[in-house]
Specification:
With about 700 residues, the chain is an alpha+beta fold. It folds into 6 domains: about 140 residues, Rossmann fold (3-Layer(aba) Sandwich); about 160 residues, Topoisomerase I, domain 2 (Orthogonal Bundle); about 140 residues, Topoisomerase I, domain 3, CATH 2.70.20; about 140 residues, Orthogonal Bundle (Topoisomerase I, domain 4); about 40 residues, no CATH class; about 45 residues, no CATH class. The longest helix is centred in the N-terminal third of the chain and has 29 residues. It binds one DNA strand of 25 nucleotides through helix 3, helix 5, strand 21, strand 22 and strand 26.
Length: about 700
DNA sequence: CAGTGAGCGAGCTTCCGCTTGACTT
């Protein structure tokens, strides 16, 4: 019997369906060995060579506490197996997991079976990027050894993140006096983006501008349309004041209008690429209002039921089998929308590891019942269609439907539009000449858009996109150059430029991904961490920095400008690539960073002043000593405390009254939070009265 | 479903990335 080791148990299950009895497949469930949690766990040696610092880093790996049972299980099975095939994911982390597994198993093997020849003999490394029979067979026929360069790239990443995080967090405890604080290459940049954005908003000064539209009509016909002013006397003209607007209005009101030019062109709108983790999270946030965490939970469930491919991926690749299957589906159901050849999508991200396919339905013929009712399926083979099990629930159906439609649409023909751009000349008094523009757009071929049109989801984004260029897309009557037009009315609008919007989950994930910061498996946890630390808070789904978040960011950016610059991660990634391709040594790369970092750290520890976070005072007086109460911040949130602490230890919760009486004791219901931060409603007489409810409506 | 926290400093906290399961009102 041969043992195959993968990371995900679901993948193990799928694999077992493809492979015969000769294989036993086990999952590691991620990493099984790591640096210790409670200490730095990296021995650092400075071997000075010719007066220069040359560092050596020795990571103190240990089995992860809750994986010990799993490790023992793997060892037992490995002992009874002929070949041990390491089939962890084909990326940096996967290679490292394979190496850790081999190290743990090999040590055991040497103990139990004295080496006869090479102890590497039983270990093989295989990789596949899609879970299909052909990909797995091909992988099994082409085993290799563990790629230590790739493992070293992971070690460099791991050690660097540990050094940054475990050196800077204690510095924050020391300088801010708050013992739950943390800093890291990823989380601190996420907070910085939010702080920087808030300051942009604060510094923003709205500028007045005017938009002047004119309603025109074809002479003798009741066909009117809107054209927008853009040029006066040969120069583009921005209107900033009411006076300027009035000047233009005067010209336009009495002008003679003629069609100056008509430009027609065909526009093609291409489908969006299939989902990857970040785009799935963004789309679910924009369309359903879901948090990244909720999306990932729903996706996990679909994945475990075998309905979709793996949901933590950065690649837009589609397996050849899935392509032929979706093309067959389109050919049957939407025959006019089948392109001549498959549409290829190139992964945009430079830091992508491409270990998995894009997120897509595993069987394209499987639809959810709600979609089936709404989608117009034009083809012949309706009988071939299956439905997803009802047990996936409403949220499962929503997400499945979204993934299904995006995938099928990504292999359909582009939509075609006839766009007409018309310029209109307005000749006013005193030889003043203005130009106006009108644009019309008519869809002539729906293509992939036909799949989205049905529930109007696509429309929403269309509207949003067209708003950004400021011109309304409308149907124009037929117009010819030189044609005179009838002036109807003028529609001036006063507007003000808007500050950039605060980040929500979708836009923050997008920003992080664009900068190559964080990975598919970490976008959702990052959002939790920065809130848990009280660096930012979500108000009406938008992120606002807290005073603490601003203070910590300022402290970090002032003292360590390089690390918390968005360029840091991309430079690190370049170095990691060099380690992976064998041109740089991992200890050298980490050492180049650590030398200056370490020196700076010492100076800051010694010299930087203590940072005070002022959360303000209140009008309330302490009931015990009469001094004012001030707002303090703890791990659990804000609370009121006596300003004379530690001589007076009075504290009080900040409660939000709901205005409802407790059904149990008649006391007052107040908004509270669990240890994990979830809101609930409880009685203010706690612990005397233990009444509690999750929802306001349930209180009765 | 929850009574903490600040400050001091006994002992404690903290990173990013890979995977689920334990929770479930």
């Amino acid at each position: 019997m041969n043992l195959i080791i993968v990371e995900s148990p679901t993948k193990a299950q799928t694999l077992s369906r493809f492979l015969g009895k000769g294989y036993r497949i086990e999952a590691t469930m991620g990493h099984i060995r790591d640096l210790p949690i409670k200490k730095l766990g990296v021995h650092i040696q400075d071997k000075k060579i010719q007066d220069k610092d040359v560092y050596e880093f020795v990571p103190q790996y240990q089995p992860i506490a809750n994986r010990k049972v799993k490790i023992k299980e793997l060892k037992d099975i490995a002992g009874k197996s002929e070949q041990i095939i390491l089939a962890t994911d084909p990326d940096r982390e996967g290679e490292a997991i394979a190496w850790h597994v081999a190290s743990l198993l090999r040590r055991d093997e040497v103990k139990n079976h004295p080496p006869a020849g090479s102890s590497n003999g039983r270990f093989q490394r295989i990789v596949f990027h899609e879970i299909t029979k052909s990909a797995i067979d091909h992988a099994l026929q082409n085993p290799r050894g563990i790629d230590m360069h790739l493992v070293d790239a992971q070690q460099a990443r791991r050690v660097l993140d540990r050094l940054v995080g475990y050196k800077l967090s204690p510095l924050l405890w020391n300088k801010l006096g708050k013992r739950w604080l943390s800093a890291g290459r990823v989380q601190s940049v996420a907070v910085r983006l939010i702080v920087d954005r808030e300051r942009e908003i604060e510094a923003f000064k709205p500028v007045e501008y005017w938009v002047i539209d004119v309603q025109l009509e074809k002479v003798g016909k009741e066909e009117n349309f809107i054209a927008r002013f853009f040029q006066l006397n040969g120069k583009s003209y921005e209107i900033h004041t009411q006076d300027e607007a009035n000047g233009i209005i005067e010209v336009l009101k009495t002008a003679a209008y003629t069609v100056d030019s008509v430009d027609k062109k065909e526009l093609r709108r291409f489908p969006s690429p299939p989902f990857i983790t970040s785009t799935l999270q963004q789309t679910a946030a924009n369309r359903f209002g879901w948090s990244a965490k909720k999306t990932m939970n729903a996706a996990q469930s679909l994945y475990e039921q075998g309905l979709i491919t793996y949901h933590r991926t950065d690649s837009t690749n589609i397996s050849a089998e899935a392509i032929s299957s979706v093309r067959e589906f389109i050919k049957n159901m939407y025959p006019h929308y089948l392109p001549d050849a498959q549409i290829l999508y190139k992964t945009k991200s430079k830091v992508a590891q491409e270990a998995h396919e894009s997120i897509r339905p595993t069987h394209v013929w499987r639809l959810n019942p709600t979609d089936m009712k709404k989608i117009e399926l034009g083809g012949q083979n309706i009988g071939k269609i299956e439905t997803v099990p009802a047990s996936i629930g409403r949220e499962g159906e929503l997400l499945y439907g979204l993934i299904w439609k995006r995938f099928v649409a990504c292999q359909m023909r582009e939509a075609l539009f006839d766009q007409t751009a018309v310029v209109i000349k307005a000749i006013g008094k005193a030889s003043k000449e203005a130009l106006l523009r009108a644009t019309g757009e008519v869809m002539t071929f729906a293509g992939w858009l036909s799949l989205y049109k049905v529930d109007g989801e696509r429309k929403e984004t269309e509207v949003r996109e067209s708003e950004t260029n400021g011109e309304d897309k409308k149907i124009l009557p037929p117009l010819t150059v030189g044609e005179n037009l009838q002036y109807e009315k003028i529609l001036p609008q006063q507007k003000f430029t808007q500050p950039p919007p605060r980040f929500n989950e979708a836009s923050l994930i997008k920003a992080l991904e664009e900068k190559g910061i964080g990975r598919p498996s970490t976008y959702a946890p990052i959002i939790s961490t920065v809130q848990d630390r009280k660096y930012v808070e979500k108000i009406e789904k938008r992120f606002h920095p807290t005073d603490l978040g601003r203070s910590v960011t300022d402290f970090l950016v002032t003292n360590f400008p390089d690390i918390f610059d968005v360029g840091f991660t991309s430079e690190m990634e370049e170095d990691l690539d060099n380690i992976a391709n064998g041109t740089k040594e991992w200890n050298y790369v980490v050492g180049q960073f650590f030398g200056p970092f370490h020196k700076k750290l010492e100076t800051v520890f010694k010299e930087a002043p203590r940072v005070k976070v002022d959360l303000g005072t209140t009008d309330e007086k302490c009931p015990e000593c009469g001094n004012p109460l001030v707002i303090r911040l703890s791990k659990f949130g804000k609370f009121l405390a006596c300003s004379t602490f530690p001589s007076c230890k009075y504290t009080k919760n900040i409660v939000e009254r709901v205005g409802i009486a407790c059904p149990k004791c008649g006391g007052e219901i107040v908004l509270k939070r669990t240890r994990r931060g979830k809101q609930f409603y409880g009685c203010s007489n706690y612990p005397t009265c233990t009444y509690a409810s999750w929802k306001k409506e349930d209180i009765k």
